[in-house]
Structure formats: structure tokens, C-alpha cells
Amino acid sequence: MADRRITRQGKNEVRKEAVSQDGAPQGGQVVAEAEEILEEEYRPTEADGGMFGEMPAKKAKNFGPSAKRLMGLLKPERALMSVVVLFILVSVVLTVIAPKILGQAMDVIFTGAIGKQMPAGVTKDQVVEGLRAQGQDNFADMLSGMNLVPGQGIDFSRLTFLIAVVLLMYFVAGVFMWAQGYILNRLVMRVVYRLRQDIEAKINRLPLGYFDTRQRGDVLSRVTNDVDNIQQGLQQAFSQLLSSLLQVLGIVVMMFIVSWQLALIALIALPLSGVVAGVIGSRSQKMFQSQWKNTGLLNGQIEESFSGHDLATVFGRQADMVRRFDEKNEELYRASFNAQFVSGMIFPVMNWVSYLAYVGIAVVGGLRVAAGQMSLGDATAFIQYSREFTQPLGQIAGMANMLQSGVASAERTFELLDADEEEPETATSHLPAVTDGHVDFEHVSFSYSEDKPLIEDLSLTAEPGHTVAIVGPTGAGKTTLVNLVMRFYEIQAGRILLDGVDIRDLSRAELRSKVGMVLQDAWLFGGTIYDNIRYGNLDATEEEVIAAAKATYVDRFVRALPDGYQTVIDEEGTNVSAGEKQLITIARAFVSNPSLLILDEATSSVDTRTELLVQKAMAALRTDRTSFVIAHRLSTIRDADTILVMENGKIVEQGGHEELLERGGAYHRLYMSQFAGGIDLDEQTAASAGSAPRT
Q1: Of 113, 118, 103, nearest to 153 (Cα)?
Q2: 527 has which bridge partners?
Q3: R_g of the chain computed on alpha carbons
């Protein structure tokens, strides 16, 4: 499909347009087509992180370069990273050596118990020879491999020392592991803190076109969820992955030190476990992708049910909404069950493979102990190594997926950081402290893409203190025109002058400080009404804020609120009406006292009575201030000094209201479409000439 981006408000508008036009219900085919568009346009994708941007990316496109760049974020923390690696190394070494020493403690107990049963005053060799003479060769072979003293029992002093050493090693290993985790968390938090600062600074340097061509959910996911995923990957994957790799390496080394024969048996399980994890893991990953997809679709169905609840109730579609929810819920249930079931098979199967190796080690180890080729303590230590061998392998598999996800999130974040920024500032001129607001467009050309020209060779003049209304069909370039004045986009040709100064020679901050803008979609932040108005000019006094509120008729409804101007507006602005929100945004623009005022369909959300009040307020406040007014409701711009009619990026008509109506051109057609039910009265009169009137 074409590049359509539907927000929640846009979805409702499409739905309303599909269901009813001019109050008349449309056919079922139209409704079905609209719902199909909504479902396709609002379907979550992995790219934009799910329905609400909650799912970060799971796979990196270029793992190697992205992982290298991610590790580069840790360069400022090289010293602490070295300490972390050292602490992990010390902890792993102590943990890996401890079973060997514990095996020595087992030998002390076993040899002491056997030695106590032997007669005192003889040597071990004499005991062994006596056993062989009695035909007990197996027992003799086992004793020959033991370091025992006949008649001597358990050496409790040595046993106590060995156990104390083991406990101390585990304690020190735990302290070092805790210390590395503490240090790693601190440095990762600093890295993520700097990354968030870089992202925030980058967002403020990005042009408006970047956000116009991307879904808000995608941008929010990169800024929030992807950064959180990076933090989780650096905190957990780095520490546990390094620790697990060192543990595997250390355990393998100790296995070969204890018994290379048993080590070969233990390592047979390694490729088998890898094959199991690879086969089952690949299948479970596909099922998890299906689970994420169905989760997003179900969330979308729930969101649509909530946002369209009134519409569903009016048309009696509750049963249909429940049916569609049940279908998607069933699909999610099946996808989730299959994903969890298959993924849950990995560790049981890997444990089964490890049990096979464990049985082989126990049998061969027992035979070697019986043959005197290995002590019981070494056999016990080796069995412990074999049991601990699978744990870090499982952690490596789990951390590998987490690291893959973290690198994928880093890749998406780096794409944001590498995006093209606004053209560098080339401020060579300055405006006077008080400006007249004289605006000139001189042969301006602009297009969003090279193959689709929009505005070509446009020239116009806005005199100081005049109101210029811009009308025309959707896509004519009305909003684009004022965006060029604000330098949200850079023109390709021509010049735009403010009081004779090319706006490209001004800094964006200086230019925009002279402009007040009110958009069609009112935006309020969480805070008091007073703070929202004062946001237009942080240096404004309380008297100036209240004066602006009175001029825009905000004061009349604020006084009726229990907390007045200190009424706190929530993030959604649900405790004030749409018209009241728009009035607050207008008051915010007026308190900034701009030289140039831009109103982009600013009265579209207010009722008719409030609209009249706002028009009176704007008429007074437009005095000595140049104003650009974009309007679809032509009744709001009758008193404009100049009306520009735009079509396909060009000004096709220009003049006053009465003058343009008399011409019978594009403005006349727009006016008739609004105030005569879409019927051109002149054409109707001509078509009916000569026919008898109805009685």
C-alpha cells in the first residue's frame, strides 16, 4: 500500500468516514474496506516494535559491526571494565578449583575410614601384598591408589582445614562476583545515561521530515524500549556470558587435570547438547515470532474495541467485536502454548544428554577407583564438574539470545543516532528586537521528493499587521507553506524574507522566537493550566499570563474550576474539553507576543459559540501582528485581509472574500461546497432554466 500512517485519531476518522458521510450510513462494502485498511495499516511489525512499540527488535541485521560499536560505548569505562573482568576471573577460578579441594577432603574421610580398619604397625605395601595373597586383587588395586596409613583414622585437623579453605573460596568468590555486579551496574548505568543524553540531543537536531516519515511508535520504541534492552544486554549478557565462558573453560581444564579419559566422555555430550539446542531453539524462535505477532494483533483488537466502543454500541456490533476478540485470543493461545512447550523441551533434553554422560562418567570413574587408577575424591570432584558443566552451557545459550536482542536494539538506536540532521546553522544576520512581521516569498520552490514537485515558483507578500488566510483542498500545500516559514523544511529555490532578512541567514532559534504557532491538534503537557499558558514565554509575569487568558476567553472557564489556574492537567488532557484545550494553546501562543502568528486550523476543535469568541479575541490580538491562518471552514476567514487559494502547490487565486466570490473561481467552488450542500448554485440555476417550477 501507499505510505499511510494512521494514528489513533486517524483511525477513528477513517472509521467515521467509512460509516457515515453527511450523516448517511454507507454500504457494508465501504465499511469492510475501511476496516481492512485499518487492520492492514495498524498491524504491528517487528520493525516498529509491536502494536504499542513494546517489543524491541530480536535480530540484528549486521551483528558484528553493531556489536563492535556497542562495545565501543564502554570505552570511557575501560578502567572499571578491567576491574570487572579481573573480579569475574578471580571468582571463576576460585569456584572451579573448590571441587578439587573438596575432593581432597573426601579422600581424607575415605582413606581415614579404610586405614582405621587396617592393622597398625604395618605399611600400606604389606597390606596390599597380603590382600593379593588372599586373592583380593580388586581391593588391593584400590588401596594401592590411596594415600593411607594402616591403623590411622580420619585426620580431622586436615579435614577441617580443607573444608575451611573450600568455604573461604566460595565466600571470596561470592564477594568478588557481587563486587563485579555492583561495579558493572554502575558503569552500565553511566553508559546508558550518556546514550540517553546523546539520543535526546540527536532528536532535537533532527528535521521535522524525519518524524513525518516514521511512525511515532517506532521512534518511541528506539528511545525507550530499545535503550532498556541495551541496558539489560550489557548488564546481564556481558557479565553472565563472560562468567559462563570462563566457567566452561575452567571446568574443561580441571576435567583434563583430574582425568583426561573421563574428560573425553564428558565432552561427548557437548556436541549433542549443541545439536539439541540448535534444532529445538530454531523451531521455538519461529513459534515465539508467531506469539509476538499474535500478541500485537490481539492488543490492536483490544485497543480498537476500546476506542471504537461507542461506534460498536451504536451499530450493535458488540457480538462481532467479541467474536473477533475470541478468534485472535484463540490464535494467541495456540501460538503461546506451542512456543512455550517447544522451548521448554530444550533443558529437559539437554539434561537427558548430560545424564547419559553422567552415567558413563560414574561407571568408568568407579572402575578406575576400584582399579586404583583414581582416588575417590577425584572421582567425586569430576562428577561435580560434569554436573556443573551443563549449567554454564545453558546460560551461554540463553545469554546469546539476549545478546542478539541487545545488539539488534543497539542497531536500531544507532540508526537513529546516524540519521541525517538539520542543515548546519549559518546565521550571518540578526533581526531587531522589535520586528514588523513583513513576509516575502520570492520564487520559492519546494518538494518532499525530487520526482514529485509540490510548490513551484511561488511569490507572495504578507504586509505587517495583515491577516493572510490560506485555503484549498487537502494536499494543496497550505501547511507546507507555513512550515517553510518556520524552517521546519528547507526550500530548494528562491528566498523567504522576514523584514527584508533571508530566514536562512537567521538562526532557527531567533526566527522561531518571533513566531507563535497554534496547530490543529492541541498539545498540553502534564502540569497546571497556568504553566501550560506560560510555556509560550517563560519570562511572562502572572499578570501577562492572566491577560492572555482573558483575551482568549480561557479565564471564563478557568475561574469556574475548583483550583483555577492551578488545576493540574493530566497527560491526556482528559479533564478539559477539546475546545478548552485549544483555547489554552491559543493563549500560550499569544503570551509569547510574536511578530508573526500562524494558526493552522486553530478553531476546528471549538464549538460555534466559542469560535465566535476566539475570532473576536484574534481580531484584537492580530493588531500590529502579521497572521497566517490555514482554514477549511471558510466562515472563519471572511475578515482576512488577503485570502490565498492554493491548488497543487500554487496560488490560483488571491483577494478578499467578496472579491473572490464574485470571480466565481476556485474559492467560489469551495464556498459553495460548504454552504450549499456541495451544489454549485450557479450551475443549478443554469441547468434548470426554462423548466416550470414545482408547486
Answers
A1: 113
A2: 569
A3: 39
pLDDT at 176: 93
Q: Is the dihedral of CA 80, 85, 90, 91 positive or negative?
A: positive
Q: Name the grid cell of 353.
A: 544428554
**Distance, CA of 656 to CA of 636 (rounded, Å):** 13
Q: Which residue bears the cell 512550515?
A: 483
CB 533 within 8 A of CB 591: yes
Residue 290 · residue 335 · CB < 8 Å: yes
Residue 654 grid coordinates: 488571491
The 3-class SS string of 511-544 reads HHHCEEEECCCCCCCCEEHHHHHHCCCCCCCHHH
What interhelical angle do 376-417 and 78-116 show, nearest 10? 170
Strands 596-600 and 515-518: parallel
96/91 Cα distance (integer angstroms)? 9
Written as nine digits, the cell of 435 is 520586528
* Tens of pLDDT, residues 431-490: 777 777 888 888 888 888 777 778 888 888 888 888 888 888 877 778 888 888 888 888
Q: What share of the chain is helix, strand, coil (3-state, %, to 5)?
A: 65, 10, 30
Confidence band, pLDDT 50/70/90 cuts, at residue 692 = very low
Alpha-carbon distance 309 to 304, whole Å? 8
Contact 470, 646 (CB under 8 A): yes
| Predicted pLDDT of residue 473 | 82
Average pLDDT, the chain: 76
* Cβ(404)–Cβ(63) below 8 Å: yes
| % of the chain with per-residue pLDDT over 90 | 5
> Which class for 200: exposed (0-12), middle (13-18), buried (19 or more C-beta within 10 A)?
exposed
Laid out side by side, the sheet with 596-600 consists of 515-518, 596-600, 626-630, 467-471, 642-647, 650-655
Write out the three cell numbers for 596. 508573526
Got the DSSP string for 96-134? HHHHHHHHHHHHHHHHHHHHHTSPTTS-HHHHHHHHHHT
Q: What is the pLDDT of residue 167?
A: 94
| DSSP 3-state of 487 | coil
pLDDT tens profile 291-342: 767 776 787 778 778 777 777 888 887 888 888 888 888 888 888 888 778 7
The more confident residue out of 139 and 368 is 368
Determine whether 654 is exposed, middle or buried from the number of CB atoms within 10 Å of its CB (0-12, 13-18, 19+): middle
Is the predicted pLDDT of residue 693 greater than 50, yes or no? Answer: no
Neighbours of 600 (CB within 10 A): 19
- Beta-strand pair 568-569/467-471: unpaired
Contact by Cβ (8 Å): 484, 454: no
b (16+ CB within 10 A) / e for 433-459: eebbbbbbbeebebbeeeeeebbbebe
Q: At a CB cut-off of 8 Å and minimum separation 6, what does 264 contact?
A: none
Name the amino acid, one letter, at 281: G
Question: Grid coordinates representing 692?
Answer: 416550470
Residue 456, Cα to own-chain centre: how many angstroms?
38
